[in-house]
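Subject: sequence -> structure tokens, single chain

Hey, anyone have a minute? Need the predicted structure for the following. Not urgent.
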Amino acid sequence: NIPPRYMEKALEMAVYQPNSYKMQLPRAVNAASPSQKSWERYRRQFINPSMINKGAQFMCAHKNALRKARVDYGVPPEVILGIIGVETAYGGNTGHYRVLDTLATIAFNAPRRVDYFQNELAKYILMCYQNGWDPAALYGAIDGGFGIAQFMPSSYIDYAVSYNGNIPDLMLANDAIVSIANYIKQHGWKVVNLFISMPVTAAQPAKS
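Reply:
Had a minute. Here:
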């Protein structure tokens, strides 16, 4: 249901993005692709004083949206905070590639996952058409994910929701929070209350 001329004009604006192409090559061919990291190295990248402080600040700044996510979707704040921290360092790194360029490059040139990325490109153009957005104006990651939540276009269409009832904008932290909560709930998240009985004792001074 996209007017043909609208899609043609969108695709005419797409520019080949070599970095997106390289990321789809097998690791042996693409020497620039990141090597596998051990859990210890990966953990240090995200769990450190700087990231913890960013997470705490983000949590305080958006406590109402995090509360809404818990109440309306049953997803606790720590789960959402962990996802946003890993994806974009709490909105500090949402990507600097044009989404149109990355998706078009991979959809028409990459050696693998072509069907998936052609679908994502179509959903991206549909998303822009429905929301009245300029397809060339949205920036994101090297693989087409965008916004604080790093949703792909199909995930935006299926799961993005607005905190205030407007058109969802995943560059807004509150919209990203509730959209992540909706995504998780729709994929089967179950609320489980665990009550653990533990004895309460007075703290003992540490022995020297």
